Amino acid sequence: MQPSSANASELFENSLSRCVIEVFVDAPHIIQPADLRANASQTEPGAFDPADGQPRRWYDVYRDLTRAIGLDESLVMLRDILKQRTFDGVFGFSQGAAMAAFLSALLEKPQSYPPFLVDGKPPHPPFQFCVCIAGYRITDPLADLVLDPTYATTTLHVIGKNDIVVLEEWTKILLGVSANKRVEEHDGGHFVPSKTSWRKFLAAYLLDPLGDIPSPGRGSVSSTPNSGRVTPVAF
Questions:
Q1: From start to end residue, where is composition biased (Polar residues) (predicted)?
Q2: Are residues 65 and 104 in contact, defined by beta-carbon separation less than 8 angstroms?
Q3: Are the C-beta atoms of residues 195 and 216 closer than 8 Å to each other?
Q4: Which of 233, 232, 195, 199 minimizes the C-alpha distance to 213?
Q5: Domain regions of the chain by residue span
Q6: 8 A C-beta contact, residue 58 and residue 71
Q7: How many C-beta neighbours within 10 Å does residue 88 have?
Q8: Cα–Cα distance for residue pair 25/78, rounded to 1 Å
Q9: For the chain: N or C, fewer Cβ within 10 A?
Q10: Are 61 and 35 in contact (CB under 8 A)?
Q11: pLDDT at 137 > cutoff 90
């Protein structure tokens, strides 16, 4: 699924292609100029730049910040993609990271949202891993049902210490429901870190999310990846 920024796509295409078979999916909701103006004061990020140049989002935020408008349409679209093939994990940035965590939790208990089922069965098994860069918790009654009290999918959370778009305290709310988490920080802002140490770290993590992989801030990660390839869906 399409990452919420161009540099996230470039990270996959330029750095991880040898070990990762990536699948990008655009969010279904196109943002109109009037929407951008209306949401300029909203506290939750939404727009990003997919391949077609149209700003899109997975959902809009209701004015009182208690509901994710359009979330159901996005879930139906994702259901139809997931039932077609098997993915090892999911990678998301910003609103895409919020969706990645939510989708990971939903695959653990798909019966909590019957429209997500296919002939009464889950469309896909739970992911082996989830990567959330600048992620946060979706605010919606369905998200509360799915994420509470916790979700179990192994999740890497990446926080930008100077991110002024997704604040660290927002990410910490998501951390509170992530039972099997690893947290890494970078000194930058609202972007996917792309220094060599980070590229190597992310490549190694995608291949072995349970492995003892050194932090990108504490030394380099081996440039020789484990054998095999993984297929994450990225958004």
A1: 220-229
A2: no
A3: yes
A4: 199
A5: 6-234
A6: yes
A7: 18
A8: 9
A9: N
A10: no
A11: yes
Q: Is the dihedral of CA 61, 63, 65, 67 positive or negative?
A: negative
The pTM is what? 0.83
Give the whole-angstrom CA distance, residue 95 versus residue 29. 13
* Contact predicate 52/121, CB 8 Å: no
Whole-angstrom CA distances from 23 to 4, 81, 82, 85 are 14, 10, 11, 11
Residue 14 contacts by C-beta under 8 Å, 6 or more apart in sequence?
Answer: none
In three-state secondary structure terms, 131 is strand
- Helix spans in the chain (H): 6-11, 33-38, 71-82, 95-108, 141-147, 168-175, 196-207
pLDDT tens, residue by residue, 159-193: 999 999 999 999 999 999 999 999 999 999 999 99
Encoded tokens for 222 = 């081996």
Distance of CA 183 to the CA centre of its chain: 14
